[in-house]
C-alpha cells in the first residue's frame, strides 16, 4: 500500500515536471520518475520480507529478494549517468528555452535577437 | 565432342555466370584504359560465354538437360542450382546473341566519355543476372535474379541523369512490386509442394491445382509477369524508360529484360496450362495490351516511343498465345520471342543511328533520309517488314503461327475467332506503324542533304540482325531444333509441331493477307488516321502513378509530422497518455488476482508523509536551487525507504548518487537564472491533469501487481546459491559481478558512453570556449575557489575518502559496497578536491578517456580471460598470486565497473565545472526580483562562484531577456 502510494506520488510529480517547458524542470522530473520505477521494482520483490540479503546476518527466512535490488542498484547509477548527460545537454545549450511565453508557437526567427543584448551587459 | 546424355557438364553453367560477373567487374577499369573499344572486348567476351554454353547444346538438343547444384540455405532446402534445358537455352541464345550485337553497337554510339565505363559494367552485369534468371533451377534463386535484373534496369535508366528520375522510379516501383508478388508466389509454392526446386514443383501440377492456394499463386505469377513485360494497365513504365540511352533500350527494354515475364509464364505453363481462368486472364490482358499498345504506337511521333509502345503490343501477343497453351501456341510464342528480339533490337539500334546522325527522332522533323543514308534505310525497312509480318521475313513465319495459336483459344466456343480477330487487328496496326517508321524517317523530300551514311562499324550490328531476320524466314529449318526443343520443355500435353516457311492456304495465310491489306490502307490514309488518333484522349498511366506516389509520400509526411517536432512536451506526452490508457484497460481487463499479503509497517507512513511533502515542494517551488535541494531531499527519503525495505546497498548507492547529482546540478545551474518562471496556466493545468492520471495509473498498477506472492524462485535461488557458488555473502553484489555480470557489463558500458557523450557535448578540453563571444570585461573576474576552510577540509578528507573507496571496492563481495558504490565515493572525493581548488584541472591519471578505456578493457578482459580458458564469458576464476590476498576475477571485473563510473564522474566535474568566465556569467543579469539569495540549504556545500559585475542597475534597466551561454 505505502509502496503504491509512493510510486503514485513520484510519478505524478515527475510527469508534471517533464511536461514543463523549462529544461531543468524536465531533468528534475526525470529524476523523480527514476525514483518511482526503482521503488516499484523493489516492491515487486515483496514488501513483507525486509531482512538484509546478506548471508549470515539476520533470519534467512526474512531476507528480501536480492534480484530486484541488484537491478535497482545499477538502475540508480545509470539514471545518474543519464541525469548528468541531460544536465550537460542543458548546459551545451540544446533548445535552451527556459522561458514561458504566452504564445508558445512563436517561430524561432523571432527569438533570435539575444546576442547583441548580451554584448551590452 | 562431349559425352551425350542427361547431365552434361554442369560446371560450365557456373563458369558462364562467373565469367559474366568477371566481365562486369572488369568493364570500368578496361574502359579507362581502352575507351570505347571496351564494347568490342565485351562483345567478344559475350561470344566466348556463348561458346562455352554452346558446348552443352548437343546434350540439350538430345532431350537432356545440364544441371549443377550447390547447397545454399540447407535449413530451407534452398540450393544454388542451375539447369540448362531447351527453354533456358533459347533465352541464353537471345541474351548473349543480342548482347553481342548491342555491345558491338555501343562503341560508335556512346563514344569515350568516362561515365560510360559504368554503363558497360551495368549492361554486362545485367546480362549475367538475366542468364542467371533463365538458368535458375530453384525458385528462390530465380526470384533473386529476377530482382537483380530490376535493379540493373533501374540503374541503367538512371544513368540518363535528371530527366530519368521519375521514369526510373516508376520502372523500379512497378517491376519491384511484381517481384514481391513473385516472392509471395514462390513462398506459397514451397508451402504447397514442400520444396523450391523448380523441376520438382513443375512436376506437381495436380498437387498445386488441388491446393486452395492455386489461384493466388497463378494470379501472383501472372501479375509479376505483367509488370515485367509491361502489360496494360501497368505498361506506362516502359515508354518512360526510353529516356535511357538507346543501347539500354534495345537490350533491356526490347530484347531481354521485358522478356523475363514471358519466360516466367512459359516456365510455369506446365502448372496452369489448360485451366480456363489462367487462359482467360492471359489472353484478355495479352490481347488488350496487343491492340492497345499498337494503337498507342500509331499515335506517337518519337521513333523510340513508337518502338516502346510496339514492344508492349508484341509482348501482349506473346502472353496471349502462352495463355492459349496448346503446343502450337507455345511453339509460336517461342519462335516469336526470338523473332521479336531480333527485329526490335535492330530497330532500336537503327533509331539510335538516325538520332546520332540527324540529331532528331521525331518523324515530323525527319524526312527523305533515304537519299543520303540508303543503306540505313534498307536495313531499317528489312527490320520493319519483319515486324510487320511480311513474307519472306522471320517475322512473317512467327506471326503465321501466332495466328494459328490464337485460333486455338478454347476458353469458350467463340474465343478462338475473337482472339484471332484481335490478333489481326493488332498486327494490322503493327504493319501501319512499321511503315510509318520507315516512311517517316526515310520517305518524303530530303531536308538535310548534307548528311551522309554512318560508318560501316556503326551499322554492322543492326544490319547483321536484319539480315538474319531475312535469312531465317525461308531458313526456318535452322531454328526448328532449338525452338521445338524449348517448346517440349513446357508443353503440357501433345506433340510439338515443326515450323515450316509455307504451310498451304490455311486460315493463317488469309489472316496475314488481311493484316497486310488493312495495314496498307491505314498507311495510305495516314493523314486522316493520324488526325483521328490524335483526337482520342487516353488516360496517362504514368502521371496517375506519379500522383499516387506523391500522395503516398504526403501521407507519410503527415503521419510522421508529430515525430519531427522539436517540441519536447509533445514527444513526452504521447507515451504518457498511452500509459493512462493502458492503466484503464488493465483495470477493466485484469481480474482474479491473488490476495495481497500484509506488506506495510508502521514506520512506512511517516516516510511516506515526508516523501509527499518533498515531492510537492519540488513541483511547486520557483527557486532553482530549492528545486535541486528538494529533489535531493526526495532522493534521501527514497533512500530511507529502501533501507526500510531491506535494500541496504541500494540505499547506500542512492545516498551517494543524490550528493553527486546535487553537485553536478549546481555546477550547471551556475549559468542559469536562479528563479523559475511560472508556466502558463493552460500548460500547468494539462500537466497536472496528466500527472495525476498517470500517477493514479501507476499507483493502481503497483497495488495490483506487487505483494501478491511469496519470494520469487529466482530470488530464493540467489539467496541459497550465492555463498556456495561464489564465496561472497553480499548476495546483491554477487548477482552484479558473478551471476549477472553480463548485465552489469552492459550497464557499465552505458556509463562509459555517457562519459564519452559529455566529452563530445562539452568539448574534450576543459574550459574550451563554446560560445564565440570573448569575455566582455577587460580583465576576467578572479576565479572563485572554495575558501581556506574547504581547502583544508579537502586536504584532510580526500585521502581518507580515497582509502574508503578502495576498501568498499575490496569488501564489496561480502559486505555492502562494491564497484558502483566505491566509485561514487571516489567521485565525491574528486568533486570535493575540484570544488575546493576551483577546478584546477585533472591530474594525468584521472583523464576521462583513458579511464573509460581502462575500465572497458579490464571488464571485458576479465570476461575474455574466462573465455580463453574454455569457459563461458565472464565465468569467475581464481587468480594465481592475487588469490592469496582475496583478489579474484570478480574483483577485477568490479574494478572495471569502478573505473567506468569514475570516468563519468570526473568527466562531469571537469567539463561542467570548467570556469564559465569564457562566456557571459550566468545568473548575473536577471532583474532585481529574480536575484534571490541562494537557498541557505544549498546542497552539498557546493560554492557558487559569484562573478556578478557591479553594473547591477544598468542591467536591471534592460528588459529581462534570455541570457546565458547558448
UniProtKB/TrEMBL annotation, chain A:
InterPro entries: CPA3_antiporter_subunitC (IPR050601), NUOK/Mnh_C1-like (IPR039428). The keyword Transferase does not apply. Residues 96-107 have a biased composition (Acidic residues). Residues 108-121 have a biased composition (Basic and acidic residues). Keywords: Cell membrane, Membrane, Transmembrane, Transmembrane helix. One of its GO terms (cellular component) is plasma membrane. Pfam families: Oxidored_q2. The chain crosses the membrane at residues 27-46, 67-90. It comes from the Bacteria. Gene3D superfamilies: 1.10.287.3510. Residues 93-121 are annotated as: Disordered. Signal peptide: none annotated. It is found in: Cell membrane. It is a multi-pass membrane protein. Belongs to the CPA3 antiporters (TC 2.A.63) subunit C family. This is Multicomponent Na+:H+ antiporter subunit C. It comes from Geodermatophilus obscurus. The lineage of its organism: Bacteria, Bacillati, Actinomycetota, Actinomycetes, Geodermatophilales.
TrEMBL record, chain B:
Keywords: Antiport, Cell membrane, Ion transport, Membrane, Transmembrane, Transmembrane helix, Transport. Residues 73-112 form the NADH-Ubiquinone oxidoreductase (complex I) chain 5 N-terminal domain. It comes from the Bacteria. Pfam families: MbhD (PF13244), MbhE (PF20501), MnhB (PF04039), Proton_antipo_M (PF00361), Proton_antipo_N (PF00662). Residues 683-762 form the MrpA C-terminal/MbhE domain. Residues 136-414 form the NADH:quinone oxidoreductase/Mrp antiporter transmembrane domain. The lineage of its organism: Bacteria, Bacillati, Actinomycetota, Actinomycetes, Geodermatophilales. Residues 609-673 form the MrpA C-terminal/MbhD domain. The chain crosses the membrane at residues 12-30, 42-66, 86-106, 118-137, 143-165, 172-193, 213-230, 242-265, 277-298, 305-324, 330-354, 375-394, 414-435, 456-476, 509-525, 572-590, 602-620, 625-644, 650-673, 685-705, 748-768, 788-810, 816-839, 851-869, 881-906. Its main location: membrane. GO terms for biological process: monoatomic ion transport. GO terms for molecular function: antiporter activity. It is found in: Cell membrane; Membrane. The keyword Lyase does not apply. InterPro entries: CPA3_Na-H_Antiporter_A, MnhB, MrpA_C/MbhD, MrpA_C/MbhE, ND/Mrp_TM, Proton_antipo_N. The keyword Transmembrane applies. Residues 789-906 form the Na+/H+ antiporter MnhB subunit-related protein domain. It is a multi-pass membrane protein. This is Multicomponent Na+:H+ antiporter subunit A. Residues 917-966 are annotated as: Disordered. One of its GO terms (cellular component) is plasma membrane. Residues 917-942, 951-966 have a biased composition (Low complexity). It comes from Geodermatophilus obscurus.
Amino acid at each position: 500500500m505505502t509502496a503504491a502510494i509512493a510510486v503514485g506520488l513520484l510519478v505524478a510529480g515527475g510527469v508534471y515536471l517533464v511536461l514543463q517547458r523549462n529544461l531543468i524542470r524536465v531533468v528534475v522530473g526525470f529524476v523523480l520518475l527514476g525514483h518511482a520505477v526503482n521503488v516499484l521494482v523493489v516492491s515487486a520483490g515483496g514488501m513483507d520480507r525486509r531482512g538484509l540479503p546478506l548471508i549470515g546476518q539476520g533470519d534467512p527466512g526474512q531476507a528480501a529478494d536480492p534480484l530486484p535490488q541488484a537491478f535497482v542498484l545499477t538502475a540508480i547509477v545509470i539514471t545518474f549517468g543519464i541525469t548528468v548527460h541531460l544536465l550537460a545537454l542543458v548546459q551545451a545549450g540544446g533548445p535552451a528555452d527556459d522561458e514561458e511565453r504566452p504564445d508558445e508557437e512563436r517561430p524561432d526567427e523571432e527569438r533570435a535577437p539575444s546576442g547583441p543584448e548580451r554584448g551590452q551587459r | 565432342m562431349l559425352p551425350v546424355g542427361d547431365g552434361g557438364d554442369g560446371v560450365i553453367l557456373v563458369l558462364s555466370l562467373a565469367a559474366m560477373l568477371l566481365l562486369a567487374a572488369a568493364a570500368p577499369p578496361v574502359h579507362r584504359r581502352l575507351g570505347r573499344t571496351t564494347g568490342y572486348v565485351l562483345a567478344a567476351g559475350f561470344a566466348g560465354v556463348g561458346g562455352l554454353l554452346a558446348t552443352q547444346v548437343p546434350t540439350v538438343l538430345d532431350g537432356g538437360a545440364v544441371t549443377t547444384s550447390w547447397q545454399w540455405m540447407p535449413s530451407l532446402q534452398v540450393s544454388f542450382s542451375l539447369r540448362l534445358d531447351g527453354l533456358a537455352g533459347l533465352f541464353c541464345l537471345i541474351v548473349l546473341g543480342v548482347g553481342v550485337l548491342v555491345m558491338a553497337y555501343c562503341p560508335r554510339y556512346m563514344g569515350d566519355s568516362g561515365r560510360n565505363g559504368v554503363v558497360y559494367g551495368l549492361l554486362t552485369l545485367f546480362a549475367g543476372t538475366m542468364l542467371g534468371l533463365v538458368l535458375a533451377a530453384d525458385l528462390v534463386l530465380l526470384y533473386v535474379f529476377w530482382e537483380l535484373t530490376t535493379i540493373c534496369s533501374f540503374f541503367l535508366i538512371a544513368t540518363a541523369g535528371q530527366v530519368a528520375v521519375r521514369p526510373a522510379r516508376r520502372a523500379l516501383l512497378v517491376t519491384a512490386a511484381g517481384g514481391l508478388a513473385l516472392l509471395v508466389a514462390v513462398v506459397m509454392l514451397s508451402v504447397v509442394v514442400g520444396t523450391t526446386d523448380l523441376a520438382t514443383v513443375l512436376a506437381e501440377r495436380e498437387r498445386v491445382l488441388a491446393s486452395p492456394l492455386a489461384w493466388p499463386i497463378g494470379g501472383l505469377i501472372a501479375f509479376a509477369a505483367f509488370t515485367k513485360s509491361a502489360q496494360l494497365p501497368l505498361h506506362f513504365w516502359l515508354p518512360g524508360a526510353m529516356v535511357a540511352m538507346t543501347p539500354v533500350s534495345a537490350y533491356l527494354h526490347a530484347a531481354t529484360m521485358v522478356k523475363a515475364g514471358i519466360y516466367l509464364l512459359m516456365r510455369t505453363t506446365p502448372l496452369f496450362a489448360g485451366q480456363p481462368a489462367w487462359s482467360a486472364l492471359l489472353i484478355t490482358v495479352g490481347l488488350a495490351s496487343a491492340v492497345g499498345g499498337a494503337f498507342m504506337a500509331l499515335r506517337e511521333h518519337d521513333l523510340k516511343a513508337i518502338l516502346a509502345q510496339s514492344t508492349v503490343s508484341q509482348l501482349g501477343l506473346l502472353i496471349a498465345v502462352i495463355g492459349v497453351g496448346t503446343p502450337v501456341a507455345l511453339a509460336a510464342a517461342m519462335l516469336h520471342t526470338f523473332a521479336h528480339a531480333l527485329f526490335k533490337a535492330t530497330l532500336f539500334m537503327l533509331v539510335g543511328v538516325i538520332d546520332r546522325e540527324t540529331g532528331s527522332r521525331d518523324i515530323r522533323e525527319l524526312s527523305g533520309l533515304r537519299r543520303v543514308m540508303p543503306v540505313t534505310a534498307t536495313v531499317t525497312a528489312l527490320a520493319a517488314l519483319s515486324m510487320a509480318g511480311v513474307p519472306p521475313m522471320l517475322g512473317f513465319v512467327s506471326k503465321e503461327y501466332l495466328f494459328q495459336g490464337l485460333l486455338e483459344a478454347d476458353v469458350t466456343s467463340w474465343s478462338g475467332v475473337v482472339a484471332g480477330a484481335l490478333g489481326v487487328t493488332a498486327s494490322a496496326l503493327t504493319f501501319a506503324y512499321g511503315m510509318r517508321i520507315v516512311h517517316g524517317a526515310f520517305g518524303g523530300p530530303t531536308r538535310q542533304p548534307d548528311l551522309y551514311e554512318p560508318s560501316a562499324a556503326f551499322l554492322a550490328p543492326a544490319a547483321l540482325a536484319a539480315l538474319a531476320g531475312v535469312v531465317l524466314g525461308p531458313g526456318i529449318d535452322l531454328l526448328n531444333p532449338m525452338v521445338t526443343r524449348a517448346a517440349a520443355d513446357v508443353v503440357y500435353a501433345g506433340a510439338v509441331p515443326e515450323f515450316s516457311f509455307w504451310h498451304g492456304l490455311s486460315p493463317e495465310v488469309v489472316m496475314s493477307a488481311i493484316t497486310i491489306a488493312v495495314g496498307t490502307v491505314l498507311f495510305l490514309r495516314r493523314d486522316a488516321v493520324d488526325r483521328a488518333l490524335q483526337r482520342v484522349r487516353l488516360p496517362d498511366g504514368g502521371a496517375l502513378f506519379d500522383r499516387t506516389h506523391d500522395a503516398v509520400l504526403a501521407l507519410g509526411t503527415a503521419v510522421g509530422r508529430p515525430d519531427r517536432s522539436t517540441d519536447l512536451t509533445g514527444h513526452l506526452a504521447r507515451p504518457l497518455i498511452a500509459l493512462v490508457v493502458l492503466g484503464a484497460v488493465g483495470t477493466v481487463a485484469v481480474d482474479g488476482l491473488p490476495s495481497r499479503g500484509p506488506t506495510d509497517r508502521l514506520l512506512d507512513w511517516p516516510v511516506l508523509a515526508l516523501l509527499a511533502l518533498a515531492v510537492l515542494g519540488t513541483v511547486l517551488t520557483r527557486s532553482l536551487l530549492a528545486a535541486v535541494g528538494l529533489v535531493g531531499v526526495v532522493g534521501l527519503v527514497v533512500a530511507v525507504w529502501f533501507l526500510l525495505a531491506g535494500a541496504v546497498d541500494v540505499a547506500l548507492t542512492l545516498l551517494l548518487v543524490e550528493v553527486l547529482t546535487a553537485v553536478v546540478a549546481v555546477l550547471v545551474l551556475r549559468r542559469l537564472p536562479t528563479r523559475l518562471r511560472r508556466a502558463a496556466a493552460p500548460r500547468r493545468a494539462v500537466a497536472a491533469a496528466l500527472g495525476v492520471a498517470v500517477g493514479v495509473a501507476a499507483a493502481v498498477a503497483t497495488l495490483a501487481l506487487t505483494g501478491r506472492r511469496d519470494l520469487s524462485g529466482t530470488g530464493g535461488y540467489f539467496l541459497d546459491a550465492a555463498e556456495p557458488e561464489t564465496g561472497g555473502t553480499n548476495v546483491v553484489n554477487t548477482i552484479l559481478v558473478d551471476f549477472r555480470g553480463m548485465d552489469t557489463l552492459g550497464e557499465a558500458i552505458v556509463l562509459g558512453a555517457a562519459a564519452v557523450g559529455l566529452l563530445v557535448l562539452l568539448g574534450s578540453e576543459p574550459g574550451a570556449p563554446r560560445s564565440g563571444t570573448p569575455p566582455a570585461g577587460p580583465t576576467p573576474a578572479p576565479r572563485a575557489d572554495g575558501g581556506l576552510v574547504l581547502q583544508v577540509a579537502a586536504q584532510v578528507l580526500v585521502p581518507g575518502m580515497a582509502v574508503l573507496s578502495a576498501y568498499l571496492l575490496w569488501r564489496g563481495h561480502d559486505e555492502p559496497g562494491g564497484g558502483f558504490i566505491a566509485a561514487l565515493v571516489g567521485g565525491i572525493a574528486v568533486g570535493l578536491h575540484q570544488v575546493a581548488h576551483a577546478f584546477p584541472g585533472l591530474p594525468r591519471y584521472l583523464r576521462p578517456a583513458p579511464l573509460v578505456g581502462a575500465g572497458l578493457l579490464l571488464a571485458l578482459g576479465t570476461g575474455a580471460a574466462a573465455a580463453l580458458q574454455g569457459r563461458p564469458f565472464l565465468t569467475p576464476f581464481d587468480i594465481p598470486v592475487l588469490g592469496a590476498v582475496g583478489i579474484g576475477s570478480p574483483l577485477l571485473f568490479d574494478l572495471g565497473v569502478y573505473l567506468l563510473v569514475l570516468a563519468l564522474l570526473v568527466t562531469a566535474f571537469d567539463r561542467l565545472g570548467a570556469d564559465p568566465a569564457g562566456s557571459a556569467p550566468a545568473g548575473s543579469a536577471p532583474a532585481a526580483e529574480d536575484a534571490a539569495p541562494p537557498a541557505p540549504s544549498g546542497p552539498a556545500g557546493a560554492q557558487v562562484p559569484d562573478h556578478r559585475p557591479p553594473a547591477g542597475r544598468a542591467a536591471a534597466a534592460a528588459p529581462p531577456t534570455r541570457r546565458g551561454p547558448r
